[in-house]
Design brief:
Chain B: Pfam families: ABC2_membrane. The complex is a heterodimer of chains A (237) and B (232). Chain A is α/β, with parallel strands linked by helices. Helices cover 35% and strands 26% of the residues of chain A. In chain A, the strands form two sheets. Chain A has a six-stranded mixed beta sheet with strand order 5-6-7-3-8-9, sandwiched between helices. In chain A, strands 2-1-4 form a three-stranded antiparallel beta sheet, covered by helices on one side. In chain A, helix 3 packs across helix 4 and helix 8 packs across helix 9. The termini of chain A are far apart. The relative contact order of chain A is 0.17. With 232 residues, chain B is an all-alpha fold. Chain B has one domain. Helices cover 79% and strands 0% of the residues of chain B. In chain B, helix 3 runs parallel beside helix 6. The two termini of chain B are 25 Å apart. Classes of the chains: A alpha/beta (237), B mainly alpha (232). At the A-B interface, helix 2 and helix 3 of A face helix 1 and helix 4 of B.
């Protein structure tokens, strides 16, 4: 079953063609990585998937529906972690979890999500007092508390220390095991290699390569996704 | 409905955690009453203070909160959840109103029980005047939130509009105490109509005109806010 289908997506801001003809599909239970340098169009693609932006042309289908028209209905089933997007400084961790759970029709037990993401010890802390890593973990937990079938994670582990990154990978692994479809936006290639079944490499609003991390490495005659990525980036120069 | 209840409770909790809001909306008006305690006509001050509570919350606090949510992309984050923009805004209004009611309860309690001020002659009219004056302040607040590019500008604009307004409209001090030319300006301020509606209701001769004017300003302000408001 196809969870995401994007066909010939175009989105420009003035003369800047942020996304210039992107097509890809993501199947149920897959973990799909969107890679690329800053300004490649990753975030705009994510925004079109979440219904925050209306494409100029092309079609976007998420769980069979158009996110631009059915944003709220889809939001029940799609969890999004935005690269930007803060919370009020005086809102406490447990309050944020309870509040977000209340916004969904069939949320997960927010206390269980809180424990799973190891937020219990900081449950009474205010958002403004959290460290960067703690904020990031809370944002992830908030993206999952609605019990989504699809999660879109923009800059999953930015701001996390190496230990926290590994822990986050394990938890994403658990999500995959539970059958959740994941779209991962990242510029950490080790992360994509570890977690993603397939990746698409974006550059200047276009997909320049896609396939499994191993395929990409094979195609470019390199040993790792990182080297493949660098080889692809060189080609465009 | 569950989303609305949780959001408004959450917003109210956040408001009550802001020491400035808590002080100026709940303690300050009752304090002013204590300072004027020797005045024989406290019943003239109390309805004005009710309007002041509403103006402090709606015109000076609300714009900063909303512009801050926009600047820090809180609104954007919430836009990826199933909550509707309408619920988001009404929850904000409900929290403001609850906070104002707490301030009003303390104020009226101190006035009636502590100073023996005669209770409102027309409680129903007073309640309506309070609600309309509140909605008018929130409409003005949302217009400011829409105009301000950043949270800090919104805070500043809120103070710049709220302070002269509460003094010239007869909220912080009765208009009788304002010198002639300044009193003239007061006649054209939206809050003046709210103060008049509150005062007439409290003292016992409510007339329809201020109620109608306040309602008209609510409609106009809301229309402007809707036209100007930006989510990001």
């Amino acid at each position: 079953m196809t969870v995401i289908e994007v066909k010939d997506l175009h989105k420009a801001y003035g003369h800047n063609h942020a996304v210039d003809g992107v097509s890809f599909a993501v199947g149920k239970g897959e973990t799909f990585g969107l890679l690329g340098p800053n300004g490649a169009g990753k975030t705009t693609t994510v925004e079109c998937l979440s219904g925050l932006r209306r494409p100029d042309s092309g079609t976007v289908r998420v769980l069979g529906q158009d996110p631009a028209r059915r944003r709220r209905a889809l939001a029940q089933r799609v969890g999004v972690q935005l690269q930007e997007g803060e919370l009020p400084d005086r809102l406490k961790v447990a309050e944020a979890m309870r509040l977000f759970a209340a916004l969904y029709e069939r949320p997960d037990d927010w206390r269980a999500v809180l424990r799973r993401w190891d937020l219990g010890p900081i449950a009474a802390k205010a958002y403004g007092d959290l460290s960067g890593g703690q904020k990031q973990r809370l944002k992830l937990a908030l993206a999952l508390v609605g019990g989504p079938e699809l999660v879109v994670l923009d800059e999953l582990t930015t701001g996390l220390d190496p230990v926290a990154r590994r822990e986050t990978w394990t938890l994403i692994g658990d999500l995959k095991a539970a059958g959740t479809t994941v779209v991962l936006v990242s510029h950490y290639l080790d992360e994509a290699e570890e977690l993603c079944d397939r990746v698409a490499v974006l550059r200047k609003g276009r997909i320049v390569a896609h396939g499994s991390p191993r395929e990409l490495a094979g195609r470019t005659g390199t040993a790792s996704l990182e080297e493949a990525y660098l080889a692809l980036a060189e080609e465009g120069r | 409905m569950r989303a609305f209840a949780h959001l408004s409770a959450s917003e109210l909790r956040l408001l009550s955690r802001d020491p400035a809001t808590l002080f100026f909306m709940v303690a300050f008006p009752a304090m002013l009453l204590l300072l004027n305690g020797s005045n024989d006509h406290l019943e003239v001050f109390v309805p004005g203070y009710l309007a002041m509570v509403l103006a402090i919350g709606g015109i000076s606090t609300l714009p900063g909160v909303m512009a801050g949510y926009r600047e820090r992309k809180v609104l954007r984050r919430l836009a990826t959840t199933p909550v509707s923009p309408f619920v988001l805004l009404t929850a904000q209004i409900a929290a403001q109103l609850a906070m104002a009611l707490a301030g009003a309860a303390v104020l009226v309690g101190v006035a009636v029980i502590g100073f023996g001020v005669a209770p409102p002659a027309h409680p129903a009219a007073l309640a309506l005047a309070f609600l309309l004056c509140a909605l008018m302040c929130y409409a003005i607040g949302f217009v400011l939130a829409a105009l301000a590019p950043r949270a800090r500008t919104a805070d500043m604009m809120g103070l710049l509009v709220m302070f002269p307004m509460i003094f010239l409209a007869g909220a912080a001090i009765p208009r009788e105490g304002v010198p002639g030319e300044l009193r003239e300006i007061g006649a054209y301020l939206p809050l003046t109509q709210g103060v008049t509606a509150l005062r007439e209701s409290w003292l016992g001769q409510p007339t329809p005109m201020p109620f109608l004017l306040v309602s008209a300003i609510i409609v106009l302000g809301t229309a402007i806010a809707v036209a100007l408001f930006r989510w990001e």
